[in-house]
């Protein structure tokens, strides 16, 4: 743009009793942008020029607001020393020196604007202890400026003013050099949150349900080889801890089979189970084989969305229209928009009523069922269900007195326990605590078994 041959023509304009050096008009900038950048729309060229002016690459000589006007307004190029590409980060003390220097020069073009006078008063209060040093710096710079040529001094004053118009803009104008995008957006009272707060809250809420962090009751099956924990989790009768977990959110209810069953029973009691039935049907559709998907899509449409459907659901017009188009080309995700809408409805309405219902409160207050066997025949229990290897080995090597008592209680049992040969091998000292004894990989018919009297071995 500053090229002598192909750039914008720069000239000195004569006015009454004065000259304005090194200026060009705003219309010249717009014409140059349209010609050299192949811009057909004049508004687009004007917008591009305004962005360049807002960043301080050229500026109006008689206005603090850095905008481009497609008229005869005079503009001047900024010296490369003050370009924003040099990553300027001026301090408030530098701004105070600049404003103080302008008050020492008795010229109309250097008078402070209202907002600049307010800024000077505010800075003077803020730097009251070192204001004398700031004043001395401003006085020294003013003496250096007086030694410059008149035309050079006039151009330099306007360029310095434009530099501060970029970094300390007029109130109401966007600061293009602002680093914090939140301040640039001019939002009022933005909601500030930290992601770590959500992570800590989630961790504190679920720590009681992590069997690797806390010792569960029953014990962790990955450590103790006791599968009681998994059996309780898979049971249709939910434990108190599982019911309490449903209160964390609707996702906890939907991913628990027992939770889905209880939630569905509650909705059926209120005659509003079609939403959950539709959501479950769509989830099941996503797991269907590809060849069964088109048929299943039509079944779901006829049951829940078609006119006169037996279990019609309530959808907004946008979701219904989108689903209608998707059904024409059936796929696994044809009901994605409808399912998301139904999910939000259940989360905001049905789930809240379920948590407040007496059904959930009764499940939550139910007594915890005992899982440990405190009385009765331990050997009978072990032969009736799978247990850990530690329990089997302890049962195999019962004390003789325990065997005689067991014979009195259960005379029909044979008190010779078949023990696999690999159970006789004790652990070596080099084995870690995570190691477990495992049977040899042989068919049952080929495994060598021993009939060992219970009383023949000492207790462990």
TrEMBL record:
User: Could you state a single Gene Ontology molecular function term?
Assistant: GTPase activator activity
Q: A Pfam family matched by this chain, by name?
A: RGS
What is the topology of this protein in the membrane according to its UniProt annotation?
Peripheral membrane protein
List the GO biological process terms. G protein-coupled receptor signaling pathway; intracellular signal transduction; negative regulation of signal transduction; regulation of G protein-coupled receptor signaling pathway
Q: Which segments constitute the DEP domain?
A: 4-79
Task: Please report the stretch or stretches of sequence annotated as the RGS domain.
Answer: 249-364
Keywords tagged on the record: Cell membrane, Cytoplasm, Membrane, Signal transduction inhibitor
Establish whether keyword Cytoplasm is in the entry: yes
Stored CDD domains: DEP_RGS7-like (cd04450), RGS_RGS7 (cd08738)
Q: Name one GO cellular component term.
A: neuron projection
Cellular compartment(s):
Cell membrane; Cytoplasm, Cytosol; Membrane
User: What's the name of the protein?
Assistant: Regulator of G protein signaling 7b
Species of origin:
Electrophorus electricus
